[in-house]
Amino acid sequence: MPWVDKEKCTGCTICVKNCPVEAISMENGNAEIDMDKCIRCGKCHEVCPQEAVRHDSEKIPQEIEENIEWAKRLMKHYKTKKEKKEFLKRMVKHFNKEKKVAEESLNKIKEIEADKK
Ligand code: SF4
Ligand code: SF4
Question: Which of 40, 88, 108, 117 is exposed most, by the fewest CB atoms within 10 A?
Fold first, then answer.
């Protein structure tokens, strides 16, 4: 999902004009993306002359940190070593499922790309 780095955005409105679903508006001189409307086409990344539209992948370290904080918070609900171990196993299952979804989606996208050649 795209997001706007407000430090870099100069408010030129190029992204607003190029968004196919009118998901970008101007708020206090900066572009603002309505994630409910955004279809994640990536056009705004391409057209921004300031590289102000950033990619989600830059938030990976932050998201990992949030996941770990989430796991630590939930772990406090379990008292015994056994309960904690079982809980961690469930977390591993959860993240393995997320990983599987991403891997299979990437494989399918590769198949689509191969069809287009
Ligand atoms: S990714 Fe596409 S739909 Fe989403 S805000 Fe950017 S241009 Fe609009
Ligand atoms: S194209 Fe870039 S600099 Fe211009 S308004 Fe959009 S995000 Fe800001």
Answer: 117
